[in-house]
Amino acid sequence: MIAKKYGSTAGDLKQYNGLQSDRLLIGQKLRVPIMYKVARGDTLWKLAGKFDSAVPIIKEANGLSADGLNAGQKLKIFPKKLAMDGKFVLMTREEFRDWIFNQKFTRKVAKVQQHHTYQPSYKQFNGSNHFALMKGMEEYHVTGMKWSMISQQLTTFPDGKVAVGRPFDIAPEGSFGLQNKEAMHKIEADAIAIENLGNFDDNHMTAEQKETIVTVTALLMLKYGLAPSIDSITYHHWWDINSGERVLDSSHGHAVKTCPGTEFFGGNSTASAKNNLYPLVRKKMQEIRGTLH
Ligand SMILES: [Zn+2]
């Protein structure tokens, strides 16, 4: 119905907004095509920025061959489309920032889990196979693990892109790999799982991926009203995978994973998280807050 109103299709509206399903929740902010009357001082570049479009998109939609605009001229402006493949949405940090602020979620989230994928690692990433790697992980989770779909909501890549996989309103599934299923479901119920693509016991993390992990984590803290702490940003390594008990740094005598890895912001300890990751996330939250007014 909304698609019709704006002379658009449901498929286009999904791609303008990175929507994973056809259902809309009240409060969801939507980008839609608009008609716009050019005012004095407007430029294609300014309008593209203002309406989440791009100069070539506006020029093509309106059959413009030159860059000049005249006051009073009417333009049809289409929003930029996000890169999507099925329910997967692949974004830059800037696109993700707009995406998360525009989305409406209903599930309560109190913790963000940090993981590394281990496999696939940097060796499998060729710069353009984000969706293929996402599908490969989903295939493994569905066929190998018998889960309903890809376990993690978010995947970060070495080039700094971030992909949404599992919808945010569905809890992760098996992300902690615990034997104690009941304990795991409890831990996962209010979690968002981030799988950072790479083997960070071996791969040295790129600066782009670091920046994305910090930015994405900061945006999640802001979206869900959280402050960085060992309760809100948690490492897989801090949990006994047999009992589901959170052991933090007292891993002696417990079965724990080396995840998110020894190269992940200084390593798996709570001291590393407190000294190397949380301060960066706090600083990024301040930066983002400063631009919201
Ligand atoms: Zn993990």
From TrEMBL:
InterPro entries: Amidase/PGRP_sf, Amidase_domain, LysM, LysM_dom_sf. PROSITE patterns: LYSM. Residues 1-32, 34-77 form the LysM domain. GO terms for biological process: peptidoglycan catabolic process. GO terms for molecular function: N-acetylmuramoyl-L-alanine amidase activity. It comes from the Bacteria. PANTHER family: LYSM DOMAIN-CONTAINING GPI-ANCHORED PROTEIN 2 (PTHR33734), MEMBRANE-BOUND LYTIC MUREIN TRANSGLYCOSYLASE D (PTHR33734:SF22). This is Autolysin. It comes from Cytobacillus oceanisediminis 2691.
